[in-house]
Design the sequence.
């Protein structure tokens, strides 16, 4: 799922009251991380992070480095979750901490690409909301730390959109020619065509997938840009009048364009949980565990949510979340919506090849 750059963070700050830097982390966690870091040798004071730009806010990273002397090398993920699997497979010792989406995690675990996390080394592990654990991609909670959750949505400008948007089907209207923006995530976008045709996000029948391919190609003339990090910028600039993106991106644009309306498509919802994982070849495990425990501090977790505006997965964060965040409708969806939403699941190699062909054909 991700997807945020500095401009989005700045826009989100306009929307909600962000805690002061002094309140970013509890005194207890700062004392703990300092003590743990002091025991590390200089060559171990490194954590190599790989995820979407800004997904761990700069203030959080900088405070951790200032307090501990541990260097966080933050490598930006510019593509989708398939890029995560490809890079970790090719370079298993390049990163120590990665944040990526649910379905790809099960695939990486099956391929032996992930390190089993030891909860005993993370005192704040108990802060994880158990409602986000035990999922299909990690049923025994061996590899994951839930980070955020989200439901992608349709967004349209009520002042400029040529049609009212109520579901995926509306995006195929020829009136939207060259005026749609969507996240550049293959399974999410293929999923729009699947839901339009009444299928699951995880369809495996080759004949049905051939119909999905044809349907998705019909959508291509309406797409002005595909962008996973800042799709909302096309709405802000006026290049697009509608699109498909995540709640944080919608909120960033809505701060400047009050005419924007979000829509949960009538054909069905997708649901995702982004998780922190540790690659099997991680070279700086001790420093990584220190950073993990810091990220799970209630105040740190609340600060992260108030900046990136994705759903929070930390029970200790609730009391520190700004009222504006807790009152926001996007963070308090009807539980039935979550119950009816569908996870994107891993695919077997043969079916994945069909999906890859659909995506390549769509992007040409």
Sequence:
């Amino acid at each position: 799922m991700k997807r945020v750059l500095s401009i989005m963070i700045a826009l989100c700050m306009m929307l909600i009251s962000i805690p002061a830097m002094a309140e970013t982390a509890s005194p207890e966690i700062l004392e703990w991380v300092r003590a743990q870091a002091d025991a590390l040798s200089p060559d171990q004071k490194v954590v190599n992070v790989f995820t979407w730009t800004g997904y761990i806010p700069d203030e959080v990273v900088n405070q951790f480095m200032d307090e501990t002397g541990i260097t966080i090398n933050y490598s930006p993920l510019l593509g989708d979750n398939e890029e995560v699997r490809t890079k970790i497979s090719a370079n298993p010792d390049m990163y120590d901490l990665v944040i990526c989406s649910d379905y790809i995690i099960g695939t990486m675990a099956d391929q032996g690409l992930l390190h089993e996390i030891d909860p005993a080394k993370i005192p704040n592990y108990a802060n994880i909301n158990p409602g986000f654990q035990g999922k299909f991609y990690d049923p025994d909670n061996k590899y994951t730390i839930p980070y955020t959750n989200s439901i992608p949505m349709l967004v349209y400008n009520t002042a400029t959109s040529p049609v009212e948007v109520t579901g995926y089907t509306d995006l195929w209207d020829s009136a939207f020619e060259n005026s749609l923006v969507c996240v550049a995530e293959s399974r999410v976008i293929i999923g729009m065509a699947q839901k339009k045709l009444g299928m699951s996000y995880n369809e495996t029948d080759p004949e049905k997938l051939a119909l999905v391919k044809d349907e998705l190609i019909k959508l291509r003339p309406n797409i002005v840009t595909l962008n996973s990090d800042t799709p909302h910028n096309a709405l802000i600039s006026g290049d697009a009048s509608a699109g498909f993106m995540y709640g944080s991106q919608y909120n960033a644009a809505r701060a400047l364009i009050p005419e924007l309306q979000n829509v949960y498509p009538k054909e069905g919802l997708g649901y995702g949980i982004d998780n922190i994982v540790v690659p099997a070849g991680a070279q700086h495990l001790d420093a990584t565990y220190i950073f993990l425990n810091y990220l799970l501090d209630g105040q740190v977790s609340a600060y992260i949510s108030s900046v990136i505006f994705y759903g929070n997965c930390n029970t200790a964060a609730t009391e520190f979340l700004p009222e504006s965040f807790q009152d926001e409708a996007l963070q308090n969806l009807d539980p039935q919506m979550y119950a009816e939403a569908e996870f994107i699941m891993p695919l077997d190699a043969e079916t994945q090849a069909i999906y890859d062909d659909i995506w390549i054909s769509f992007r040409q």
User: Anything to note?
Assistant: Residues 23-149+272-325 form a domain with the D-Maltodextrin-Binding Protein; domain 2 fold (CATH 3.40.190.10). The first strand starts at residue 46 and ends at 52. Residues 172 and 219 are 6 Å apart (CA to CA).
